[in-house]
Amino acid sequence: MVLILYTTLYKLGGREMELAAIHMAKQKSGAKAVRIESKAEFIAAIQGVEEPIDELHFIGHSGLYGPMFGTTRRPDQMSRSDWNELNIRFAPGAQAFFHCCRGARWFAPYFAHRYGVPTYGHASYTTFSHSPDVYVKVQEGREDVYVVSVPGYKSRGLFGYARKRLGKAPTVPLTRFEQIPDEDGSYDGVAELYDQVFIDFRVRHDEWIWLSKHLQRDGAVVDIGCGNGALLLALATLIKRGLGIDVSKRMIQIASHRARGEENLSFSEYDGLQIPAETGSVDVVVSMLSWRYLDWDPIVAEIKRVLRPGGQLLIVDMVVAPFKPKLLPRMLLDKSRHFVGGLSAPAFRKALKRLVEDPAWATMLSHNPMRAEHEMRNYLPSRFPGIVVETLNRTPRTEMIAFRWTPGSTGDRTGG
Ligand SMILES: C[S@@+](CC[C@H](N)C(=O)[O-])C[C@H]1O[C@@H](n2cnc3c(N)ncnc32)[C@H](O)[C@@H]1O
User: Taking a C-beta distance cutoff of 8 angstroms, is the pair 71, 8 a contact?
Assistant: First the structure.
């Protein structure tokens, strides 16, 4: 059977998504188009099929980690543990198609690997068209709608606009991914090189200044995705005790070795789902450059469980963010600050170059990309009402964002 699942509520374009799904269902014999608006409905639709699936299509919005469900006010997304638990009954020779933005960057290869079926995705952004081959602006009243990708960054700008209006913008076909052999995508393979770069956390000025300004002193701190433990080592004299947790065995070994003699610090490998701490026993939960990898819904429940009322959640992460011309002055300022900062830390720059040029780094990144800005900016306020968001620095395509939240703060009705 051909199962076409589509969403209409996350961001704009919902009506066109529905038209595209219905149009596709008419073109394929035995196809069923089902509107789903949440992760639970997605799972139910997949589990509810009576025959094995020959073709699975998803039409909707996507983050870098796959389809987005729900709304931007309350987004819903499958995490890696959700995919691990979901079995999909594919027929021999089955294929999967994700008609959404940027699905080819991480999600389609991941899906092909997880389910062992050839999977198709778009590397760039998608839009709607009356032709599958060349961009034709969608008119009210017509039902022959396709989701297509047009070359160029969102195919915007004067040139992109003119090309599209003149019917001269050919669409880019979906990219096909096959199952690849297993390879280690964890941080284990880059742990030593990573450690050499970030021996001292304070070399990361923007993050360190922000943390020093906001972190409650003298408390019990849990650092999720602690890596080589550099943050807790830098904080050792400012906190009562620190527990660093990470899924990488090698990172935990390095962190434990570095923290020999620091009585108030400990490091532990964990399953990525359950924080090894008593309910209400933690003053501060920190996550630095690791939020992108976490299983969001389970870890959010865990953070709310372990944090005491009045405690603190501090998150910093780098996201992929669209270029915004109005931020040009900010980008230039941040770039020159980093250039000047780098001049006084030649050893750091050398070690960083060694890390990013190592092939193991590229392998790790292909398994663990950054998130899209909207994935974090929409998700975190929806789960932590009243969370305060700040930009720490900006480049043309990335943003370093910081989030801080206190259980019971203004807007938080969860009670911690
Ligand atoms: C970019 S490093 C950041 C390390 C450290 N927080 C820092 O700022 O230097 C990301 C870390 O997240 C860890 N990680 C990946 N998935 C994780 C998960 N599900 N739970 C906890 N840590 C995870 C990796 O093993 C890695 O050590």
Answer: no
Give the residues across from 126 on adjacent strands: 149
Tokens in use for 259? 């923290």
Q: Is 42 in the pocket of ligand 1 (CB under 6 A)?
A: no
Instruction: Give the CATH superfamily of 187-405.
Output: Vaccinia Virus protein VP39 (3.40.50.150)
C-beta of residue 223 within 8 angstroms of C-beta of residue 287: yes
98-152 pLDDT, tens digit each: 999 989 989 999 999 999 999 999 998 899 999 999 999 999 999 999 999 987 6
Q: How far is the CA of 251 from the centre of ligand 1 (A)?
A: 9
Domain extent listing, the chain: 2-177, 187-405
Tell me if 227 CB under 6 Å of ligand 1.
Answer: yes
What integer pLDDT is reported at residue 414 of this predicted model? Answer: 43
Q: Is 197 in the pocket of ligand 1 (CB under 6 A)?
A: no
Residue with tokens 């509810």: 48
C-alpha 382 to ligand 1 mean position (Å): 23
Q: What is the pTM (predicted TM-score) of this model?
A: 0.91
Candidate from 192, 194, 293 with most ligand 1 atoms within 8 A of CB, to mutate: 293
Low-confidence ranges of the chain (pLDDT < 70): 152-160, 409-416
* Residue indicated by tokens 């975190």: 380
Tell the burial category of 270 from Cβ atoms under 10 Å away from its Cβ (0-12, 13-18, 19+). Answer: middle
289 lines ligand 1 (CB under 6 A): yes
Q: Is the CB–ligand 1 distance for residue 19 below 6 Å?
A: no
